[in-house]
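Letters spell out the chain; backbone shape is given numerically. Both lines appear below:
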Amino acid sequence: MAPFRAVPPRPFTNIKVRVRDDRLQIFSDLGDGFDGWRGVFGQYARGGSDPPPGAIWLTDVGPEADPKPADWIWQYPTLNGCGGYVFMHNGDNMTRYPDQGPRKEALVANIAVALRKLSIGELLL
């Protein structure tokens, strides 16, 4: 696994997390402000780590011209293709996101559903 690298905190927009790939529908019902906590951004993630080959890069953090992966998911390689899944979150406690709206605190549940669907073949990487 690659080491964590912090992104520059200035300008403030660098620490706003942006969804890059939501084919697993983890973020689709959370709203644009899912990464804010009490209206403050930068708590969800302040950097990233490079995903291994074959991983899905889920979210960006950092400058739009040079984003870093805040979240990614990867299947551990095995000879029979049945390796387990790794969800990497390069940030703070995920159980409190989002902290508002009808899907309050739904992020971890959405991740669990996606991992279950991947493991039984309902979704594919």
